[in-house]
Amino acid sequence: MQRRRFLTLAALMPALPLVARAATDLAHIDHASMGHGPAAGPHAGIDHSTMGQAAPAVALPEGAPLPALVPLANRSREAGRFSGELVAAPVHKGLAEHGKPTEVWAYNGSLPGPLIEAYEGDTVEIAFTNRLPQPTTVHWHGLPVPADQDGNPAYPVLPGETRHYRFSLPSGSAGSYWYHPHPHGHTAEQVFRGLAGVFVVKSRRDPLAHLRDIPLVLSDLRLDADAAIPANTKADWMDGREGDYVLVNGALKPVLALGENERVRLRVYNATSARVLRLALPGFEVWRVGSDGGLIEAPRREAEVLLSPGERAELVITGAAKAGRLIALPYQRGKMMSAEVGETLVLATVAPGPRVASVPLPKRLRRIAALPAPKVKRRVVLEENMADPKAMFTINGKTFDMNRADFVGRVGEVEEWEVINRADMDHPFHLHGTQFQVAARHDGRGWKTEPYRAWRDVVSLPAGQAVKLRFRQDQPGMRMFHCHILEHEDQGMMGQIDVRA
């Protein structure tokens, strides 16, 4: 064990009773106000007898065909307009092989939530109703929407209320986005109970439109002996929650039928709270063709694809004559209180089908212009202080305050942020309102130029590493940036930039 890790844990032990006491005090806060600072959510459900996660308590059925996502119906008959309805509510699902139904929180009763598909240039209107026992919001993760439509916790949807979200999808925004709750203090719980859905923006000039397009939503699930979803443990609030099962489109180890020589486009979403997924498909031809914000410039042959929480990748795979497996290889992300994943996880099986003809991949997918030299440079430091239960996870030494702007920016100005992880564990960094380009990475030995250009809204930062990213905000308003380990976000590892016209 590293000396720093040992000293951190030693400092943490006396503080744990303080965390529990703080939870008791916070339990009386009026959460409907959604004020600044951490709500009771991160601590009120702690199981004080558990330092880590237990082995799976119940069995789930496995090996069914890969479920297709339920599309959200477009109620508009006008061209260029998408109008739909979303309802977040508790529902009961028969997840366990034998046992009681599980109460989950779902959009429109679906796990994952309904698939929203729209085109560049469309105007999107979503009537969202909250039937949860907590305030919530809908964050359109990665989409360039107006600040007051982005699901910021400053705009809560209280239990029983309906909120109408409205935004337009600009040219060049085609990509693999998703939606999930973003109420401060309650985000982690609402996501691990099931609230997440896919939002695909399409281009009418898509060079891969001829391929079968398959979303794969990877999520964590934990069930207790009664097939109920338990609250977070102390270890979860420290390390970020990992479940007992990694589901694909809500199913355990489903089967994807793929004809020999058939090429398909996989949109892969890491919708877990904290798990870093080191994905591989041994024996298959795998090409990376897209990132969070859509297609990259040219296909890249990949043996492995690393996805941190919130991150997406578009892959093109080619069917083989034999069966295969989509796997998650072991990855150590620096957890403090629970064991690292030391084994390879089988996520899905690929079943061979009849041979089909396929079209070669284009050599070029699109052009991504490099952002120009920045007008503003900033440093953003991610840190951990386990001796302070009120500020264990910070950005630039501070925890989130909804009434504070950490930076002030200008619409249209290119900024370069040097984001530094001075903590002991991985922290994926997410910026709202725009997509950024990673210019360079520092692995502890020196800066290295990013090998290819891509639009992203999440970047993985292992302990002791740093990135330089460039972006431009094209709409005014308050925009959040934070760690996308949801438990860390809920505890205040988040800041805001006030973008002014």
From TrEMBL:
Residues 99-205, 387-500 form the Plastocyanin-like domain. Residues 1-22 form the signal peptide. Keywords: Metal-binding, Oxidoreductase, Signal. Transmembrane segments: none annotated. It is a lipid-anchor. It comes from the Bacteria. Gene3D superfamilies: Cupredoxins - blue copper proteins. It is found in: Cell outer membrane. PANTHER family: MULTI-COPPER OXIDASE (PTHR11709), MULTICOPPER OXIDASE LPR1 (PTHR11709:SF2). This is Multicopper oxidase family protein. It comes from Crenobacter cavernae.
